[in-house]
């Protein structure tokens, strides 16, 4: 019966999607319309969870999508109205299979955050620990699967009708999106990511960084109960001074921890924006939200390592050579031509962020994306297509570059002996 129900719901969802796309198409044909990227973004937002996530994927994937679409989808915000607390309590109770008061002494009915896939509430366990509960919204997984299967089928049809599109591998992109989104829906995987990173910190004797502890007895595939961290964002310089005597040292801890994870952990945190890096009250750096992680294949890692080494010493020929080995191409790429273009971009970057300009989170995000898109665009202008993991990796480097401008403007990232970029 469940399968039949899912089938009926799936058919209804596809009908709903086709209806919205049809209305968008009619508006587009009438000619009274916004630019195509904006029209597509507005359509995605009206279609809900899957398409909002897809929009965010486009925003963080300049290796796959044109610049004007990547820029437009920066506005695809993953903020949704809170579900009533009664619905949240029901989901938690169903997942635990027992009364809530046997596990939690209290749960704050006001959500800390609400996104398309999950909602987060502060709580306290009966054993006294302060926690947060991440609760998956009802029906999300079924909607994601239905939408992504529909998109995959559409992509395959388009590739058949227009063989030139197969080089961009639209169906491959949809498969990648499906893999990352379904991983985000599986909180057991996120819990495992937290435990693996915790073990990595333990094995590397790193007592200056932390990740939230997972409470397995009240975590399932659809709810995740974690230790609650109290602290401030890594970009809140004034508040950091109340927790850490040396903000520069705190930043170095965060960077060294992340760099070490590239080679000594089975994945790297692939979303180190300011909301996911905290300075805790005891001065440690807290890494939170392990829904998005990146994994680099061993054969690609040597090229990535060489790329980092080349960036550190400003060797543009080395950067170009490594990019050619990381990328996929159908043509011969001239190292010296690519190196020349990278050198010109590097000179522009130096002029772009004067140290005296105050930090603005939105502007920093735009800068990160623009530089990233420019680097990728240069590679693509030479016939290179990069794996998404490389874009994720570059984006984290660029985030850290911005944090240096805020917390340690005098520090030379590539010359400072306290930084261990390559372990």
From TrEMBL:
Keyword Ribonucleoprotein on entry: no
InterPro entries: ABC1_dom (IPR004147), Kinase-like_dom_sf (IPR011009), Mito_struct-func_regulator (IPR051130), Prot_kinase_dom (IPR000719)
Keyword Kinase: yes
CDD domains assigned: ABC1_ADCK3-like
Pfam families for the chain: ABC1 (PF03109)
Protein kinase domain span: 106-423
Keyword tags: Kinase, Transferase
Enzyme class, spelled out: transferase
One GO molecular-function entry: protein kinase activity
UniProt-listed Enzyme Commission number(s): 2.7.-.-
Matches recorded under PANTHER family: ABC1 FAMILY PROTEIN (PTHR43173), OS07G0227800 PROTEIN (PTHR43173:SF22)
UniProt protein name: AarF/ABC1/UbiB kinase family protein
């Amino acid at each position: 019966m469940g399968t039949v129900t899912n089938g009926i719901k799936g058919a209804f969802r596809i009908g709903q999607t086709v209806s919205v796309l049809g209305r968008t198409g009619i508006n587009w044909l009438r000619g009274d319309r916004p630019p195509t990227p904006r029209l597509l973004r507005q359509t995605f937002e009206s279609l809900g969870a899957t398409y909002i996530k897809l929009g965010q994927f486009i925003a963080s994937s300049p290796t796959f999508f044109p610049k004007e679409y990547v820029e437009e989808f920066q506005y695809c915000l993953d903020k949704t109205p809170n579900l009533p607390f009664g619905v949240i309590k029901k989901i938690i109770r169903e997942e635990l299979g027992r009364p809530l008061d046997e596990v939690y002494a209290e749960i704050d009915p006001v959500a800390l955050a609400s996104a398309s896939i999950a909602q987060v509430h502060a709580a306290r366990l009966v054993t006294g620990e302060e926690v947060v509960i991440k609760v998956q919204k009802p029906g999300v997984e079924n909607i994601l699967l239905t939408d992504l299967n529909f998109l995959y089928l559409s992509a395959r049809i388009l590739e058949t009708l227009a063989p030139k599109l197969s080089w961009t591998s639209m169906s491959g992109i949809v498969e990648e999106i499906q893999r990352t989104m379904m991983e985000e829906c599986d909180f057991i995987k996120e819990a495992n990511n937290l435990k693996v990173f915790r073990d990595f910190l333990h094995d590397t004797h790193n007592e200056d960084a932390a990740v939230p502890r997972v409470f397995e007895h009240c975590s399932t595939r659809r709810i995740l109960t974690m230790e609650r961290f109290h602290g401030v964002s890594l970009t809140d310089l004034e508040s950091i001074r109340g927790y850490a005597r040396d903000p520069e040292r705190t930043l170095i801890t965060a960077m060294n921890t992340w760099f070490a994870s590239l080679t000594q952990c089975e994945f790297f945190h692939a979303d180190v924006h300011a909301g996911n890096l905290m300075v805790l009250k005891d001065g440690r750096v807290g890494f939170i939200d392990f829904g998005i992680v990146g994994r680099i294949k061993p054969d690609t890692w040597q090229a990535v390592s060489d790329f980092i080494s080349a960036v550190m010493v400003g060797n543009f020929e080395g950067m170009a050579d490594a990019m050619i080995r990381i990328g996929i191409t159908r043509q011969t790429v001239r190292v010296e031509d690519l190196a020349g273009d990278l050198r010109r971009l590097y000179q522009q970057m130096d002029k772009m962020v004067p140290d005296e300009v105050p930090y603005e989170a939105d502007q920093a995000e735009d800068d990160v994306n623009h530089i990233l898109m420019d680097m990728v665009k240069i590679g693509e202008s030479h016939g290179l297509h990069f794996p998404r993991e490389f874009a994720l990796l570059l984006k984290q480097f660029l985030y850290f570059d911005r944090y240096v401008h805020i917390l340690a403007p005098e520090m030379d990232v590539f010359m400072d002996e306290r930084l261990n970029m390559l372990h």
